[in-house]
Write the structure tokens for this entry.
Amino acid sequence: MATPTYDLLESVTLTSSAASVTFSSIDQSYGDLILTLMTGNDSGFSRQNYVYLNGDTGNNYHYVAMRGTGSVAASFSGTDDTLVQAGDSIRSKNLGDMNWVVNLFDYSATDKHKSVLTRLTNLSGASDAAAAAASRWANTAAITSITMAPNNTTYSVGSTFNLYGVAK
Amino acid sequence: MAFNLSLLGGAAGGGGAAYDLLETTTLTSSASSVIFSGLGSYSDYAHLQLRMVSRSSAATSNANINLNFNGDTGTNYATHDMEGNGSSVGSGSAASIANIRVAQNVGTSIADAWPAAVIDILDFSNSSKNTTARALNGWASSSIPRIYLRSGLWIDTSAVTSMSFALSSGDFIAGSRLSLYGVK
């Protein structure tokens, strides 16, 4: 018997600039989470988009990413980082928003580190890039909150953040 | 509240639920393969999506996750991939092979990482097209991290009625989870 399973848990559309957005008290009854972001920032420049799990800002995140810019394909990685690195910066609002689809697997499990797969795209019209990344939070705790924050700036008005639960 | 969605996470409102959980296998002991059979009963769905978190029992840092359709182990498959290893991006392909190398996995050579994959099988019940699959897959480890985009082809126009997932090295260990969804 099929089970309807892709449920909207939380949704935020900014009506004023915000330094961060947090989804907390996340429902623990699903298998995976899918986070979608369509974000710009107010700096006028590219800025990294930080994602923290359970408020953990320690050196507990690992990542590998690849991206193609139309002329160059590159890959980079990091260990013992302080955030879920998705491999690129969000663009400033005037250069166009950036979209992310972030998959967080077995987020409520307490016996394994958390795996994250991300697809993201710059929509700037300049410095366009398509990218994908794998990340790991080196912690077996269930994910109960997700905080997103641009580096040293604010998210611009109209940025959207949606969190979905996928049943297992 | 249930929402429609397009493949790989896009969501759209309106209508009834269009993305349904069909089956889940969570291993309580190791298994050499995981098979989803009886897929003909899901022919009211257009596409299938498999979401997977798994590890291998072998002392390997990179094992293929091989996909076979309808029990066909002939050399009727092809695969393409793009891989990021943290320092460079590469691409590979293979044709006339005995399965789709739809994703990659790790074993005891890589501690703590649980490779994940999202695999889409398009038009699986269509009997006039060869069957194609695509995947986003990867893991982040202190050594040998990988991110993949992969695609595969089964050169057969039969409707897909079963799918088998097996590793090229070792067994899926306990705790591995494979969840199958239908997309209308």
Observations:
- The domain at 21-183 of chain B is CATH 2.60.120 (Jelly Rolls).
- Confidence is low (pLDDT under 50) at residues 1-14 of chain B.
- Chain B touches chain A through 49 residues (CB under 8 Å).
- Chain B has one domain: 21-183.
